[in-house]
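Sample pair:
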Amino acid sequence: MLYFLPDYIRVLIGNTAFIGIVLLVARQFEKKFPIEAEQSTTEIIADWKLAGLRYGTGQLLSPVVNLSALLIINAAGGGWIQLRSDGWWFLFSFMVLILAIDFWGYLVHRAAHKFPLLWAMHSLHHSAEALSAVTGARHFFLEESILGVFPILGIVFKVPPEMVTPLTFVYLLPDGLSHMNIHLSLGRFALVLNNPQYHRIHHSIEPQHWDKNFCKLLPLFDVIFGTAWKPRKDEFPKTGLVPREEPGGILDGIIWPVRHRLSWVRSPGRTVNHERVEPVFGVEDAGR
């Protein structure tokens, strides 16, 4: 029956069904091996609302974002480096893409914590105090679309179509599900692959953990740039913003960057993004 629907609708239904199945499976693991056995119902509901808003908006805007990105890529030459996928070249090209995606993702993530405009959006994600598989999609609803129209990797690389699906699956578990509420430690292998404990450190309210563990898949660039924190076996800290700040509902999620920035102005000398800042001409500013 789906065959008779437009391609865009078929892809949307397929993606939604797949994500739903993954979340259901992840939820079973969270129930069996939780870090926090009792999580705030309000926080869980907020996660679902904000994730739904972001996912729905992202799907609606994806044709425009993808078209804009494609126009930029073509204007820049359609990919400077042609990656080969024949024979053993597939594996080599695949690893090059993994490293490139991780490096760019690391830079973007650090920028989101450093520059006030980006942090004003990204801080919504960090306001979560009850991490779960759904928290990975709890972002400001326009953040992904705004960043998506700057296709740096698409400008640099011409990616063979057959690599897109394998890349999606490789990043699904360590990146997409890195917020799971699951009590799992990789121990001595904690710096090999991103995982819920490693990424939980990134969301920690503990000062020693601030600005650590930015990676998407491989902690490699955290290690190289000195932002890696190897968690101890039983190190599962509380998460959220310092000072505490949480959205009150969908409307708060929609206006979050403005609301978040205004909250700085209303509280002179407060701790913002983990740094003590003082107002300059009545307006505070800081990057995390």
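The CA atoms of residues 69 and 151 lie 6 Å apart.
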